[in-house]
Amino acid sequence: MTVASDENNPPVNQWKTLDRDLKRFGRLEAGSHSISRGLVAPGLALAFIVFVGLVTAVLMGGQTGQLVVIAAASIGAYMAINIGANDVANNMGPAVGSRAITLLAALVLAAVFESMGALLAGGDVVDTVAKGIIAPSALPDSSHFVWAMMSALLAAALWLNLATWLGAPVSTTHSIVGGVVGAGIVAAGFGAVNWDTMGMIAASWVISPIMGGVIAALFLALIKSKVIYTEDKIAAARRWVPILIGIMAGVFSAYLALKGLKHLFKISLLEALAIGLVIGVGCWLIAIPLIRRQSEGLENRKKSLKTLFSFPLIISAALLSFAHGANDVANAVGPLAAIVHTVEQGDVASQVGIPFWVMAVGALGISCGLLLFGPKLIRLVGDQITKLNPMRAYCVALSAAVTVILASWLGLPVSSTHIAVGGIFGVGFYREHYAEKRAREKGISKGKPVPPEERKRRLLVRRSHMVTVAAAWIITVPASAALSAVVYLVLDRLAS
């Protein structure tokens, strides 16, 4: 039996064909929307870089070397974007992963405090060549110095961009150091490099994560023994949480004095520790009644403890962002400031002042990169290495500040990125150790050994991420050095 058809009643097969065509158009439209969303962030980043170039052109007003400064400012903006996309995840990742704060709130909070740190305490003077690796006098002339700084800046930015795309948190300081080494070797030879300094930087690849991991694990062990696994958790929290808040306040005060506020006035390590001690004791005394009031009515269980640690964790993440903005903005604007000074004055100085507009490029660029590209690394650091809760994330934040203070006292080179990520791994490995220990004790008491499949199930740290991150750390300096050498050769050829 056939289905009749006329102009008003098309056959069934025709309806099916029409449905399939409409579904194809629907999928095509959905795909185009997905692609367009993926292009929004790069488009906005490009618009920011172009905007910085235009503003620089207006500020230079046709001065000699205008095109060089415009190019350098655009590259500096690109570098700052990549710092925000990659490095800031170490500060906010644990807070987001522990669910103490939403991703959107973390992005806004970090952008505000990163900018405040960069603009208020970012420093008026920076070394023109990162970490004293190459003396400016080792380069043939000021033109070669400008090309070397520009090459280092672009190479570091390209490497950070690639690392972010691969999902690997790396050190921005090591990236710019590698860029300076690569350009310096091509411009002045291997003898121009301070290899003793490079050896100290290489040592930090091992020192930073180990110190960060051990200190974070020790804080977690303290919280587990004194608070989590006690009969009356709320009473224990009332005693220990104010102490931990006091430690946080004191350590961060000293941390900010050393890493950020030192740019505003000269301060020694002992003076910073004295400031930290006074503020820490004061915050401990203030926190005692606040925690007692907050803990009223809470049930005697582990979930209640998360409530007491969430707000201190958010504060510590904000302070870390402030200190990071004050310290690491120099990685973006230091070489740019050196280029501006050299082009305007015609000579190379060991230290230069940073114009406000140059500092603003770094501050706004870091915030822009964080808001546009930061979520990827924040999720990895906060959620994909090991599972975090407010207590564990608090240990990571405390570890970052304590490790910097301890390393400054011992004179050891450390990387804030490596410390933070090492703290996360340290917390995860301690959880594995603790779970294994409890299971083994339980098995012994019941006369049953722990089977291999149960041991494997308790692996609480993703080994694949550990390998990826470690590999990225090791090759950061060589990779950025190789990129910088190639860029320098190209610029030198174009200029000659």
Quick overview of this protein structure:
The protein is an all-alpha fold and 496 residues long. It has 16 helices and two strands.
What's the structural blueprint in terms of helices and strands?
Blueprint: H1 12-60, H2 66-86, H3 89-97, H4 103-121, E1 125-127, H5 142-166, H6 172-188, H7 195-228, H8 233-259, H9 269-295, H10 302-328, H11 330-345, E2 351-353, H12 356-384, H13 390-410, H14 416-446, H15 452-457, H16 463-495
Antiparallel strand pairs: 1-2
Helix pairs in contact: 1-2, 1-12, 2-5, 2-11, 2-12, 3-4, 3-10, 3-12, 3-13, 4-10, 4-12, 5-6, 5-11, 5-16, 6-16, 7-8, 7-13, 7-14, 8-9, 8-10, 8-13, 10-13, 11-12, 13-14
3D architecture notes:
This protein is mostly helical and 496 residues long. It contains 16 helices and two strands. It has a two-stranded antiparallel sheet with strand order 1-2. Helix 8 runs antiparallel to helix 9. About 1% of the residues have low confidence.
Outline: elongated
Order of helices and strands: HHHHEHHHHHHHEHHHHH
Q: How many extended strands?
A: 2
Q: Estimate the helix proportion, in percent.
A: over 70%
Provide mean pLDDT, rounded. Answer: 82
- How many distinct helices? 16
Contiguous runs where pLDDT drops below 50 for at least 5 residues = 31-36
Structural class: mainly alpha
Q: Give me the Rg, rounded.
A: 27 Å
Strand content: under 5%
**Order of the strands making up the biggest sheet:** 1-2
N-to-C terminal Cα separation, in Å?
85 Å
In this structure, how is the largest beta sheet organized? Answer: 2 strands, antiparallel
